[in-house]
């Protein structure tokens, strides 16, 4: 194998005279990013005091919200341009306009989304790149001590109004809205909502229901089905018709009884649908557990013994789905509830079952309770597989086939190159190193599997997070869309390949560092998915204006 120069001119010449191996042309082309890096920083850019959310995955738009969380502001990225009379412009400082935000972005429009008592959920945004639709959410304040009525789960907060807004990002027109009343959907980092192609899954934690919607090309949000209390479209009709038959039969018996006896029978004979039947999803789960235990033994005697120990002994727990516990002399109840969901494909959902404190608010110790994940087939309404979050079998699937959990829409081809331990040897070595250092294997497995199901569109497709190209400290920065504790030291991006040199640095905050070392600062990084261009945003916890730096290739 001959030496390949890292010089960009040599790489262009090499591209002309050689052909990459089959299936590697995109990876071969992405190595040009080793030469095209955001090598220059403009510190403390003069920009509007907005909350910047992210670039869309195709790089066409920058999404931001006003500080009062009432308005959506959308920008179009553009490159800084200026004139220079000298031959070597690189030696000159940039003009003063380079410190202005509008030199890099053009505002397209500003749209008011929230009403007077609603606020935009600034951590929520989903992008449908096939039609350039954006999904946003507004909500009223949480009510933590809301009573559990109408089948709601005790201990889950209530929000009077949650509104999902579907916008066409090209012109900001609101195409459709979907409202959930007196419900609770976890909108933080898109956890309670998942978008796959044109299908949208919204998880109602309060009523334990998965709402499946379809986004039409016309921009309409069409309700397809609801999975929870009922699994098939005609389940409710079937149960209601049978309940009417039972009620009619009871009334006939009551007419044949004495008048004194009628009063008692009227009270006892009413069908209580909420107490008589388990929800459809719980029935499917019980059926899967029973069938799995039944098929494990071929001998009838051993089979019955196993069912007694593993199923019937815990049957009341399965039916009630309530675990009573005492903590600090206060008795509270833990309900096994539907937690988070993601699509695996157009037919299968990965569902997480967790626990929530039966007190007035969600328990902070919920991570200590057992959690389970199940694969659910929406067409057959069956549970396909079921694992506890400490199962070694599930961890092996997670380690070898992580990309299958990071499911992306068919149109998002650039998302196929996001590094994971199932497609990148460096990420796999890092994971195994952490595993070898872990003192408790079971706790390590739980920690890794706690990320399942994955949040939708939570990873940046920027090539500078490609671990086959660059090496960086993932404790300070990564492709995951999360705030990080800020540091006054620059974050280094080092070439993974020869000559393993430092290519560029990203430093959030002022160039000279923070004057107040005691103030706790957090940083977020917005990388453009294609261009050598990034924003670093440093903010404190005291609602001071953010410090925005722009990093680009000069």
UniProtKB/TrEMBL annotation:
* GO MF entry, a single one: ubiquitin-like ligase-substrate adaptor activity
Q: Name one GO biological process term.
A: protein ubiquitination
* Region feature Disordered, mapped onto this chain: 246-268
Q: Which Pfam families match?
A: Det1
Q: Which GO terms describe its cellular component?
A: cullin-RING ubiquitin ligase complex; nucleus
Residue ranges the record marks as coiled coil: none
Q: Which InterPro entries match?
A: De-etiolated_protein_1_Det1
Query: What superkingdom heads the lineage?
Result: Eukaryota
Which parts pass through the membrane?
A: none
Q: Where is the composition biased (Basic and acidic residues)?
A: 248-264
Q: What is this protein called?
A: Light-mediated development protein DET1 isoform X1
């Amino acid at each position: 194998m001959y030496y390949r120069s890292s010089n960009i001119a040599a790489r262009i010449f090499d591209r002309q005279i050689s052909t990459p191996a089959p299936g590697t042309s995109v990876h071969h082309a992405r190595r040009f990013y080793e030469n095209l890096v955001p090598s220059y920083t403009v510190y403390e850019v003069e920009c509007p005091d907005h909350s910047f959310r992210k670039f869309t995955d195709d790089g066409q738009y920058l999404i931001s919200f006003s500080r009062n969380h009432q308005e959506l502001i959308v920008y179009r990225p553009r490159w800084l341009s200026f004139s220079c009379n000298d031959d070597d412009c690189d030696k000159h400082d940039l003009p003063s306009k380079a410190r202005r935000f509008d030199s890099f972005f053009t505002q397209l429009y500003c749209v008011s989304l929230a009403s007077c008592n609603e606020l935009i959920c600034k951590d929520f945004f989903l992008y449908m790149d096939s039609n350039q639709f954006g999904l946003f959410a507004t909500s009223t304040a949480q009510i933590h001590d809301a009573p559990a009525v109408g089948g709601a789960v005790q201990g889950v907060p209530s929000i009077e109004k949650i509104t999902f807004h579907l916008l066409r990002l090209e012109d900001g027109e609101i195409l459709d809205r979907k409202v959930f009343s007196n419900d609770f959907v976890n909108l933080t980092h898109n956890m309670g909502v998942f978008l796959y192609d044109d299908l949208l899954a919204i998880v109602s934690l309060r009523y334990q229901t998965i709402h499946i919607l379809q986004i039409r090309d016309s921009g309409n949000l069409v309700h397809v089905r609801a999975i929870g209390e009922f699994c098939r479209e005609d389940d409710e009709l079937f149960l209601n018709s049978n309940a009417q038959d039972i009620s009619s039969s009871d009334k006939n018996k009551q007419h044949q009884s004495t008048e004194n006896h009628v009063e008692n029978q009227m009270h006892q004979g009413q069908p209580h649908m909420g107490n008589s039947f388990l929800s459809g999803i719980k029935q499917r789960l019980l059926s899967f557990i029973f069938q799995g235990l039944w098929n494990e033994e071929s001998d009838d005697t051993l089979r019955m013994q196993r069912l007694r120990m593993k199923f019937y002994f815990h049957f009341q727990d399965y039916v009630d789905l309530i675990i009573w516990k005492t903590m600090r002399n206060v008795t509270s109840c833990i309900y096994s509830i539907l937690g988070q969901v993601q699509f695996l494909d157009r037919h299968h959902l990965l569902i997480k079952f967790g626990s929530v404190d039966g007190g007035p608010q969600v328990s902070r110790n919920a991570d200590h309770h057992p959690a389970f994940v199940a694969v659910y087939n929406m067409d057959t309404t069956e549970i396909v597989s079921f694992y506890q979050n400490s199962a070694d079998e599930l961890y092996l699937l997670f380690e070898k086939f992580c990309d299958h959990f990071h499911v992306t829409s068919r149109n998002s081809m650039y998302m196929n190159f996001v590094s994971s331990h199932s497609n990148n040897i460096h990420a796999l070595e890092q994971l195994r190193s952490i595993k070898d250092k872990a003192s408790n294997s079971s706790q390590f497995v739980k920690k890794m599997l706690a990320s399942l199901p994955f949040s939708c569109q939570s990873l940046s497709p920027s090539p500078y997070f490609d671990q086959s190209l660059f090496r960086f400290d993932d404790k300070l920065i990564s492709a995951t869309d999360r705030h990080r504790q800020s540091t006054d030291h620059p974050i280094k991006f080092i070439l993974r390949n020869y000559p393993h040199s430092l290519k560029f640095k990203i430093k959030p905050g002022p160039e000279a560092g923070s004057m107040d070392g005691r103030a706790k600062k957090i940083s977020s990084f917005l990388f453009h998915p294609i261009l050598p261009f990034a924003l670093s945003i440093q903010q404190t916890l005291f609602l001071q204006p953010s410090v925005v730096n722009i990093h680009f290739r000069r």
